[in-house]
Design goal:
- By secondary structure, the chain is α/β, with parallel strands linked by helices.
- It has 14 helices and eight strands.
- It has a six-stranded parallel sheet with strand order 1-8-5-4-2-3, with helices on both faces. A two-stranded antiparallel ribbon has the order 6-7.
- The two termini are 36 Å apart.
- It binds 5,6-dihydroxy-NADP and zinc ion (ZN).
């Protein structure tokens, strides 16, 4: 196991009727900006619940943060924060709203070019505190210091991480996910699944605890994900999916182990260029990546095949192929298509994605830094 620091300061308020507790974790004198997305939080009453929880504090609202939040939109919120002298941000929505709010928190008092800070991963200066009410179990953004923002002008989708960006608290009421359309339920399960895979499916370093936690999360998502699609208002199922998604990317399973974020990094280019949902890009790329990397990931692929899919028969190559096929089948069972062609993308998308990877210096990737342009092309071609 590698050396590691583990630090996670986010307080989780989990369960029903927890939104009312938000006020206890925000300073009484705070001037609060509630941020939200395209309207789901308003329509389903969550915004109103958040306002009530804030009591007599001075509260402002900023709506319209789109999926894969755009820099331009977020900069408008930054102006509002400055104008109203906001001191606390409360995000109400999915990963895009939480990520966007982290950007606002870092940008509000930044002296200099904020996009340069973000894209060159320079440290922020003074960061506003934030909390969140998460309405979509998927990204883990509620309990991590990461955010991904899109610069539409540049065709760039860029992730950024800094310890100052952990939310102070995250409210997870599984019932809030009842109103999600099936596509977003499925996206969430696939995203969480791939987060686990990218921290688990590399090479063994005798990290038995992390491996067993990861396998537990994968098995849970395989069992509960399909139920969340058919049994809409099953609290136990939603609670399980919600907590799985948080644990998939709150840092716990990733400590002390090699990681491979190539599926995410290549996937972000597909979203930036073609507006595919984040999880759709992962469902398309992951099976092909596992296939191309089957030799360097051999030991872990065999472990994954046996422990997660119960595949123990046949020679090594057959078991690995079966595990990759079952992974793809799971994404399809969740209703997330796993081929680029199924989303109507032209075959030229492969060259476009490679051009973006070059332009933003995103290669090589992988736990051995061996996913170069040749391998990235193979992955994309196999994904088509
Ligand atoms: O905008 P509204 O109206 O709220 O609608 C949203 C949006 O259309 C809707 N929605 C959310 N909660 C709902 C709901 N609809 C009905 N009922 C509810 N309870 O769902 C749609 C998608 O929302 P979005 O926030 O975009 O989805 P998700 O949570 O999957 O977030 C995706 C973003 O997170 C980034 C992705 O790249 C993408 O930009 N990620 C962030 C990560 C992180 N911070 O650690 C890691 C991830 O790998 C990921 O990259
Ligand atoms: Zn993701």
């Amino acid at each position: 196991m590698f050396n590691f620091d583990y630090y996670n300061p986010t307080r989780i308020l989990f369960g029903t009727q927890r939104i009312a507790d938000a006020g206890q974790h925000i300073p009484p004198e705070a001037r609060v900006l509630i941020t939200y997305g395209g309207g789901s939080a308003k329509k389903h009453g969550t915004l109103e619940e958040a306002r009530l929880a804030l009591g007599g504090r001075e509260v402002y609202e900023f709506g319209g943060i789109e999926p894969n939040p755009h820099l331009d939109t977020l900069m408008r919120a930054v102006e509002l924060v400055r104008e109203k002298e906001i001191t606390f941000l409360l995000a109400v929505g999915g990963g895009s709203v939480v990520d966007g709010t982290k950007f606002i928190a870092a940008a509000a008092h930044y002296q200099g070019d904020v996009w340069e800070m973000w894209s060159k991963r320079q440290p922020p200066q003074q960061v506003l505190p934030l909390g969140c009410i998460m309405t979509l179990p998927a990204t883990g953004s509620e309990m991590n210091p990461t955010a991904v923002v899109t610069h539409t002008g540049l065709g760039a989708k860029v992730g950024y991480s800094h310890p100052a960006l952990y939310p102070r608290f995250a409210i997870l009421d599984p019932r809030k996910s009842y109103t999600l359309p099936p596509r977003q339920v499925a996206n969430g399960v696939v995203d969480a699944f791939v987060h686990v895979i990218e921290q688990y499916l590399t090479y063994p370093v005798y990290a038995k605890v992390q491996d067993r936690f990861a396998e537990g999360l994968l098995l849970t998502l395989i069992e509960e994900g399909p139920k969340a699609l058919t049994d809409h208002e099953n609290y136990d199922v939603r609670a399980t999916v919600t907590w799985s998604a948080t644990l998939a990317l709150n840092g716990l399973i990733g400590v002390g182990v090699p990681q491979d974020w190539a599926t995410h990094r290549i996937g972000h280019q597909l979203t930036a260029l073609y507006d595919l949902d984040h999880a759709q890009t992962l469902a398309v790329l992951l099976p092909s990546l596992l296939h191309v990397q089957r030799d360097t990931k051999r030991l872990k692929l065999l472990q994954y095949a046996a422990r997660v899919w119960g595949v123990t028969e046949g020679d090594e190559q057959a078991r690995i192929t079966r595990a990759i096929d079952l992974t793809r089948d799971f994404f399809e069972e969740m209703g997330v298509k796993s081929r680029l062609s199924a989303y109507g993308l032209p075959e030229t998308c492969i060259d476009e994605v490679l051009a973006n990877l070059r332009r933003f210096n995103l290669l090589p990737q992988g736990e051995h830094q061996d996913i170069d342009e040749v391998k990235a092309r193979r992955i994309l071609s196999l994904s088509y």
